Amino acid sequence: GSSFKTLYIGGISGRIASTNATYGKPVSNCNNAGNIVIEDGVTITEDLIGGGLIGQYYNATPDLNIFKDSTNAGSFTIGACTLKDTYVGGITGSQSSKPVPMSNVTNTGDISWAATNSGEVCLAGVCASNTQSRANWSGLSNFGNITATGTAPDAKVQIGGVCARGVGVMNGFIHYGNI
Questions:
Q1: 136 within 8 A of 100, measured Cβ to Cβ
Q2: Beta bridge pairs of residue 169
Q3: pLDDT at 59
Q4: I need a labelling partner for 161 at 20 to 30 A (CA). Which of 61, 71, 123, 140 fits?
Q5: What pTM value is reported for the model?
Q6: pLDDT tens digits for 110-167?
Q7: Is the pLDDT of residue 24 over 70?
């Protein structure tokens, strides 16, 4: 199978990163219905960071970025792979560095994980990992199912209907999918 050090993958963008403090990269009115599949036999030695819309929203300029009015209907399937860390969300896998307000985003796509991980696993209907406790999120919805049949014998596994790890202000979240 294929081998990668780090894989950023998303239905709209694998990674959005802004390093310049004078401009932002807002995301709005984006929709994805395509499926993402990490096939059996793939090896990723560092991070798999994936989302139905955006794999990672990183180092974004605060107050100039916003993630709003977007949907994902595509599924995200992780087959029998060998991975280290996995961050996969129905909308985004990781939002890190600076807080990005998120509002009115909906996921209806299913997530399934059947890999063997040696590191951390975060799976969620909207955002798998948010390292910014100051983020202000409202109106986030997940209707997709999350199925976890993989193994991570030496790591922690975190699964959430909307967010698996760390979130700031939460207002009006909805989760109807099965975990």
A1: no
A2: 136
A3: 65
A4: 61
A5: 0.93
A6: 999 999 999 999 999 999 998 866 778 889 999 999 999 999 988 889 999 999 987 6
A7: no
> Can you give the three-state secondary structure of the chain, one letter per residue?
CCEECCEEEECCEEEEECCCCCCCCCEECCEECCCEEECCCCEEEEEEEEECCEEEEECCCCCCCCEEEEEECCCEEECCCEEEEEEEECCEEEEECCCCCEEEEEECCCEEECCEECCCEEEECCEEEECCCCCEEEEEEECCCEEECCECCCCCEEEECCEEECCCEEECCEECCCC
Encoded tokens for 157: 């596994």
Task: Bin 172: left if φ > 0, else alpha if -120 < ψ < 50, else beta.
Answer: left
**122 near 158, Cβ under 8 Å?**
yes
Q: What is the dihedral of CA 93, 95, 101, 102, to 10 degrees?
A: 0
- Residues whose CB is less than 8 angstroms from the CB of residue 91 and which lie 6 or more positions away in sequence, other chains included: 51, 52, 53, 54, 67, 70, 72, 102, 105, 107, 125, 126, 127, 140
With cut-offs at 50, 70 and 90, classify the pLDDT of residue 171.
confident
